[in-house]
Amino acid sequence: MMGPQHALSGAAAWLTGSWVASTFFDYPQSITTIAIGTAVCAGGALLPDLDMSGKVTHNEGGSTVSRSFGVFSLFVAEVIEKISVGVYTATKLSHDPDRHNGHRTLTHTLPFAALMGFGATWLCTRFGKWAVLGILFVMFGFALRGLFDKWAHKAGWVIVTITSGAAAYGAYLQLPEGRGFPMIGLAVGVGCIVHLFGDIITRAGVPILWPIPTGRKMWRMVGLPDKFAIEAGSKVETTLLRTVFTVIALVAGAGVLATPLLKKFNIDL
Question: Distance (Å, rounded) from C-alpha 148 to C-alpha 18?
């Protein structure tokens, strides 16, 4: 899928999960934590595509997320892409094809999603304020680039960067005591997993079974059959799926925000 739909699917997934947790497991959240979790999950849902590099020196090309912070994020994407293709080449089996780029390899696996989720939690818990601020800054930047793609394109990466920094600092000030906030790591990990399932429904698929070899392949691309698969960038994705994700996000968001809003205004349920 394309970046905007990935980000929107991440937001929809987090709001739906929050509504389920509140309704069926008695796990309410404040409006602030719901908003932060949703933004972080939307950003996390773009994170795996940081393996698609572009023209760093010209600030062109790359994936949606690679362009979030201009040449800086494009450079990071270039490094991650080279690492990914290196891991692919080092671990591929006899029936895995040769590859010259790392897109949809290492960062499109469950181990990567787990590493990002647990890694974010560990960083926040171990280093506190600066780790939380850094992760929020990056995830908010990704979310802005994905959810508000047209605005971000017109505004440019400098404005996106400034907005992300301001939003991250404002969000940090509103977080409850215990700045580690483990939910940040969970939101990052969930976002990455949502991304994988979004790409599974396309023709190219993802190596979601890695590092478990299947047959003589280590990097088996798992996806829907061509006649059922969605073509990335097609009308089905940009119109139908975007509409579905938007409706899910709005309905789930209304449901999960109802209780804290009523409490805020002292309205009895």
Answer: 22
How far apart are the C-alpha atoms of 166 and 202, rounded to whole Å? 36
Let me know if residue 112 belongs to a domain.
yes
Question: pLDDT digit string (tens) for 77-124?
Answer: 999 999 999 999 999 999 999 998 889 999 999 999 999 999 999 998
How far apart are the C-alpha atoms of 14 and 20, rounded to whole Å? 10
Confidence band, pLDDT 50/70/90 cuts, at residue 177: low
Query: Which of 212, 193, 200, 204 is CA-nearest to residue 91?
Result: 212
pLDDT digits (tens, 9 = 90+) for 20-40: 988 888 887 888 888 999 999
**269 in a domain, yes or no?**
no
Give me 263's structure tokens: 């409490």
Pair 52, 81: CB distance under 8 Å: yes
Report yes or no on 243 lying in a domain.
yes
Contact 88/106 with Cβ under 8 angstroms? yes
Does pTM top 0.85 for this prediction? yes
Residue 206 β-bridge partners: 222
**Tokens 């580690």 sit on residue:** 180
Total tally of structural domains belonging to the chain: 1
- Over residues 213-226, the pLDDT tens digits come to 988 899 999 988 88
Domain that holds residue 152: 3-264
